[in-house]
Amino acid sequence: MKIMIEKQGGLADIKERFEIVQPLNKSDLLEIIHAWQDKLKLKPNRIQIRRMRNKWCSCSSKGNITINSELTRLPREIVEYVILHELLHLIVPNHGKTFRVLLSVYLPDWERLHYELFLIEKSMS
User: Fold this and answer.
1) How many CB atoms lie within 10 A of CB 113?
2) pLDDT band at 39 (very low <50, low <70, confident <90, very high)
3) Using an 8 Å Cβ cutoff, are 90 and 59 in contact?
4) 2-7+22-124, superfamily in CATH?
5) Angle at CA 40, nearest 5°, toward 44 and 72?
6) CA distance linking residue 84 with residue 77, whole number of Å
7) pLDDT band per the 50, 70, 90 thresholds, residue 73
8) Residue 64, Cβ neighbours under 10 Å: how many?
9) Does 78 score more than 50 pLDDT?
């Protein structure tokens, strides 16, 4: 598996309205990714961390996961939700019932985290 960390401009700046006690760094992101990979027994083709304009994360049909570097400015539990969400797309490519059941198995409070992420996104617009 190849891991790339790119610097790239983007518009995904998070407003300073969210107080983060200890911002994460890119190695923290990789630590979270590896922990979930091990737990799920999944191997993405490639993981890339870069600034993205409109998404927090994405998973391609080829198994490539791209993570927005701005996630480092969000609370760790939301970061874990986003990463788990994308890793689960390696198993289930859509957001159907099977996908939601898997989210509930691995992260029972995912709906609360999803809603918190929605509020963050809403405040950015």
Assistant:
1) 20
2) very high
3) yes
4) Metalloproteases ("zincins"), catalytic domain (3.30.2010.10)
5) 65
6) 10
7) confident
8) 15
9) yes
- Residue 24's nearest CA partner among 64, 65, 66, 83 is 83
Q: Scan for tokens 């790339």, then name that residue.
A: 4
Distance of CA 72 to the CA centre of its chain: 10
Closest to 79 measured CA to CA, from 122, 37, 30, 41 = 30
Say if residues 87 and 65 touch (Cβ distance below 8 Å): yes
Q: Are 83 and 59 in contact (CB under 8 A)?
A: no
DSSP 69: G
pTM of the model: 0.80
* Paired strand residues for 57: 67
What is residue 104's three-state secondary structure? helix
Closest to 119 in 3D by CA, of 17, 28, 50: 17
pLDDT at 32: 92
Domains of the chain, residue spans: 2-7+22-124
Which residues lie closer than 8 Å to 62 by C-beta, 6 or more apart?
A: 45
